[in-house]
Amino acid sequence: MKGRILVLGSSNMDLILRIPRFHRPGETIIGKDLAIAFGGKGANQAVAAGRLGGKVLFLTKLGKDSFGESYRRYLIQNGFSPRLLLRTSDLPTGVALIEVVPGGENRIIVSPGANGALSAGDLPRRGKIWKGTTVFLTQLETPLEAVSLGLRLAREKGALTLGVVNAVGSTIA
């Protein structure tokens, strides 16, 4: 593919726990096989596109905490520019708590953390980030204000825009 993909999106640390069944309110159950993984729809899309050979820029926001430091290193190791891996000390890195029962059904609770602080002001209006960008990909795990502006700017620059509708009750304008 000629050109470049710009992904605006989330980065969550996924805490995945296998449980025998979903518990009832107020009940404590014992889980096993805790796995900690790099997740978030934006990061997953950016990393996958890069591993498939695409030239990818990824704009995200991480907390200045241990999860954020680990995530930043992971993204840099996957070829992403540190200048677009924004950080905040006001909020922790986003976290997803994922419960998985036998058979694979799951329940997910997301605490957006720094993802929720990714604002329209964080998205450059012009410059190198847009030069050569032919595809703009985003999702709804970051504030709609930033997503909407990103889609508008990408259309103005002539990029193909792709929005993944995925957050409960959210829509892309």
Protein described:
The chain is α/β, with parallel strands linked by helices and 173 residues long. It has a single domain (4-164), classed as UDP-N-acetylmuramoyl-L-alanine:D-glutamate ligase (3-Layer(aba) Sandwich). It is 21% helix and 33% strand. The chain is built from 3 helices and 9 strands, in the order E-E-E-H-E-H-E-E-E-E-H-E.
Short description:
By secondary structure, the chain is α/β, with parallel strands linked by helices.
Give me the CATH superfamily.
Ribokinase
* CATH architecture heading: 3-Layer(aba) Sandwich
Which percent range describes the beta-strand content? 25-35%
| Helical segment count | 3
Mean pLDDT: 92
How many structural domains does the protein architecture include?
1
Please tell me how large the radius of gyration is: 17 Å
**According to CATH, what is the topology?**
UDP-N-acetylmuramoyl-L-alanine:D-glutamate ligase
Topology (SSEs and partners):
Layout: E1 4-8, E2 12-18, E3 32-39, H1 41-51, E4 56-63, H2 66-77, E5 85-88, E6 94-100, E7 106-111, E8 133-139, H3 144-156, E9 160-164
Parallel strand pairs: 1-4, 1-8, 2-6, 4-5, 8-9
Antiparallel strand pairs: 2-3, 6-7
Question: What features would you highlight for this structure?
Answer:
four-stranded mixed beta sheet, alpha/beta, single chain, 173 residues, five-stranded parallel beta sheet, 3 helices, UDP-N-acetylmuramoyl-L-alanine:D-glutamate ligase
